Amino acid sequence: MTKTTITRRGVLKSSAALGLAGAAPMIFVRKAQAFVNDPGDAGSVTLGFNVPQTGAYADEGADELRAYQLAVKHLNGEGDGGMLNTMQPSNLKGNGILGKKVEFTTGDTQTKSDAARASAKRMIEKDGAIMITGGSSSGVAIAVQSLCQEAGVIFMAGLTHSNDTTGKDRRKYGFRHFFNTEMSGAALGPVLESSFGNDRTAYHLTADYTWGWSQEGSIKKYTEALGWQTNAAVRTPLGAGDFSQYITPVLNSGADVLVLNHYGKDMVNSLTQAVQFGLRDKQVNGKDFQIVVPLFSRLMAQGAGENIKGIYGSTNWNWSLQDAGSQAFVKSFGAEYGNPPSQAAHTCYVQTLLYANAVETAGTFDPCGVIEALEGFKFDGMGNGPTEYRAADHQCFKDVLVVQGKENPASQFDLLEVVQVTPRAQVEYSPTMEGYEGDLGTCAA
Amino acid sequence: MGFFKLSARDALLMVIFAAAVLLAPIWLKPFGAAYPDLLQKFAIFGLFAIGFNILFGLTGYLSFGHAAFLGIGSYTAVWSFKLLSMNVIPAVIFGTLTAGLLAVLIGFVSLRRTGIYFSILTLAFAQMCYNLAYSVLTPITNGETGLRVLRDDPMVLDRAVGVIQEGSPIGDFFGWQMQGFPAFYFCAAMLIIGFYVSLRIFRSPFGLKLRAIKSNQTRMRYTGFNTRPYLLLAFVISGMYAGMAGTLMVVTDPLAGAERMQWTASGEVVLMTILGGVGTLLGPILGAVLIKYFENIFSAFNTDVLHDVFSFMPDWLENFFVTIVHPFVGEGWHLTLGTLFMVIVIFLPGGLVEGFNRLFQRRKKKASSEAAGSRVATGGEKQATAEN
Question: Which of B12, B14, B28, B37 has the most A C-beta neighbours within 10 Å, making it the best mutation to test the interface with A?
């Protein structure tokens, strides 16, 4: 076997050459741009829809994607225009965004931070997405939001309910239309008091990640203020599938209310199993055993079937609302897909329109201008009544719905009954409230 | 130069490999894969697979728990960022070392068994690590939410020197921010070093001993040869590769989640290695690139993209093809990968590398038979080396 002699000088030379060759492509990548993915003179602009297509929240993800496609249609002037006709104030013209045709790219978050960030990076680096939106988990939303802050791209959060998204993990480039657990707690508290009284013992089953912790904290805070006791709070892994091992201990715990801090398929499974175990037919401490699901959605109600009848929860939006914005949206969504939209679909649709409108208002795709246009933006006609994007934490403030599973549904979609519309004033909190302080950071440009 | 100690063939292989890796941003462009995040993934998982192959390819011990090392490397790196410095060097060193330590522990116990029992033991250990990270160790790992670097973390070294980054913390290599292409080149450099080390191991007496263990361990023992120290060393080296890959994941994106330790991640590296070619030098990297390419590019194809692709056809045919192809792309990319995996395992048990070798040999045979005319080759033909 022959040995080549490799001299030090030779190695240095060749590695220098390789280094140069390797650096060459960077020249092509670094274009002169005022901001990331500036569409410039291109005739179209790309939005990135990053939704869970697999895993515990796949149903929500599929519905989100449907809403996004509808929003793109409406922005491009196709279809019946949906909420473009009801949004006030609005600068949207139905000719794309700033005259550029809206295109989109999709990705699967898999409800995992890693996968979601990889997918968002692909959209930004490869597909040239100017804005990232979507997601159905707060863990993912927080991870993607901080990525977007680093990358200098706007993130319009999809369904994310944890306080942290606009609390301690708030970011300058991130915006949330959806409500949060603090608002759920504030809205549910009075309803729970009038229905179940002040002398109750609660048992929490909590999805073990940021959203579950946040919701458990908020519900504890508001129920304990009513005089309720908290018997135990048990953490369950996300996507557990079988919850029987967690539900059996509830039977003999002495608790008379079960709070399910679960969402998506997890909630469908845990609620179904809780009902199968006969929890709802039980009498504890001389009172009927009750189940509460603080975050409710019509998709989950459909999955849980009979079991949701009479169960209280809160929701961001429901398709049965009678205002013009909701009706316009339900009409065009129904015409397109044959079923009413979920709250996840609603928030994603609204977020896309809000982003497009902010770009029109600012007259530029430059994120700093868009952020300025969104901060403190007050609007109406989007299904939630008068709403404001608070500048201090980029959280939308609006009325919150308390709902109950319907006893006699009129159709397979008519599953939730709005018990109470909690006015905005009752659920509003200070952006510097303890446990919510955060630092938005700055806009880079 | 004692350092490189490579035969001419290997030196050539090394140079070609390095060039191919460093020029990846150019030649991967036509495939739509030349963006930094995916390139980083290619390099990182390539490194992971190379390391896995040192154990599986050489000794035949199939570990189903390598994700544990990937995970612990990630967590250590984040903690190094949090406590010491955003500089990536301490992160890489500590991440690799901790993974090595964990490998000593797991290896010491697991290597007492062979075959399926070894696989199950490693799987059990990895799932234990995953569940610990997910539940009991939440104060250290931050559970499902994932561990992130925050602005108000101690970072004692950075603070001592007085360099604290503005905005979100990003890995730093003496002034180079570990994002985009610089981060890719950092990973690429690690991949090339990793490949060199693996090449040296393959060619060394140590590598030969490992192969001997694979072919007949009992005979080795009968000749009075104690195999266990060699196995443990191979296991630890392989674990350190995984730890370094985990560290690099954090270097390019300062975040660590428990799902990195899940059995699916362990399974993925097995797939990569088998798909590319077990026991070959380049195979595992090819497998890693292929799987990551599928995961990132195929999964992004939606019906709109498909309609674009087939738009040259008449409408009815276009719709027909979109309907047929749709289940295999987008969220169905696993289906394509599964089919491909089956085809390769059935027809090319040696992986992609065997495929290339067969092509290469066929061409060589054709060429030589044309040149030699009627002369019959009498078995003097050299087998293409099994390694590459």
Answer: B37
Domains and CATH numbers, chain B: 8-279 (1.10.3470), 301-352 (no CATH)
Q: Determine whether the interchain pair B330/A1 forms a contact, defined as Cβ–Cβ distance below 8 Å.
A: no
Cβ separation A2–B7 shorter than 8 A: yes
Task: Please tell me which residue of chain A has the smallest CA distance to B298.
Answer: A107
Q: Report the candidate in B40, B41, B64, B112 with the shortest Cα–Cα distance to residue B273.
A: B64
CB–CB of A8/A92 below 8 Å?
no
Q: Which residues of A touch B304 (CB under 8 A)?
A: 104
Asked if residue A44 lies in contact with residue A138, where contact means CB atoms within 8 angstroms, the answer is: no
Of B7, B35, B145, the CB nearest to A126: B35
CB contact under 8 A, A150 and B170: yes
CB-CB under 8 Å, B302 with A237: no
Q: According to the CATH classification, is domain A44-179+319-398 in 1.10.3730.10?
A: no
Q: How far is CA A4 from CA A331, A415, B2, B4, in A?
A: 75, 77, 11, 9
From chain A, pick out residues whose CB is under 8 angstroms from the CB of B26: 24-25
- CA atoms of A31 and B283, how far apart (whole Å): 36
d(CA A51, CA A134): 5
- B144 in reach of chain A (CB within 8 A): yes
Which of A11, A22, A126 is opposite residue B185, by nearest beta carbon?
Answer: A22
Residue by residue, DSSP assigns A227-293 as: T-EEEEEEEE-TT----HHHHHHHHTS--SEEEEE--HHHHHHHHHHHHHTTGGG-EETTEE-EEEE
pLDDT tens, position by position, for chain B (388 residues)? 444 678 889 999 999 999 999 999 999 999 888 899 999 999 999 999 999 999 999 999 999 999 999 999 999 999 999 999 989 999 999 999 999 999 999 999 999 999 999 999 999 999 999 989 988 888 898 877 788 888 778 888 888 887 776 666 788 888 888 888 999 999 999 999 999 999 999 999 999 999 999 999 999 999 999 999 999 999 999 999 999 999 999 999 888 888 889 888 999 999 999 999 999 999 999 999 999 998 888 877 777 777 777 888 888 888 888 888 888 877 778 888 889 889 988 999 889 999 999 988 888 888 777 766 544 444 443 444 444 4
The closest alpha carbon to A156, from A323, A314, A377, belongs to A377
CB atoms within 10 A of CB A374: 22
- DSSP lists the bridge partners of residue B173 as B176
Q: CB contact, 8 Å: B139 with chain A?
A: no
Contacts of B249 in chain A (CB under 8 A): 114
CB contact at 8 A, B295 and B271? no
Tokens, residue B145: 């939410």
CA B306, CA A388: separation in Å to the nearest integer? 39
Query: Can you spell out the DSSP letters for A119-143?
Result: HHHHHHHTS--SEEEE-S-HHHHHH
Amino acid code (one letter) for B251: V
A182-315, what's its fold?
Rossmann fold (3.40.50)
Contacts with A26 from chain B: Cβ below 8 Å:
25, 181
Distance of residue A358 Cα from the nearest chain B Cα, in angstroms: 25
**A182-315 has the same fold as A44-179+319-398:** yes
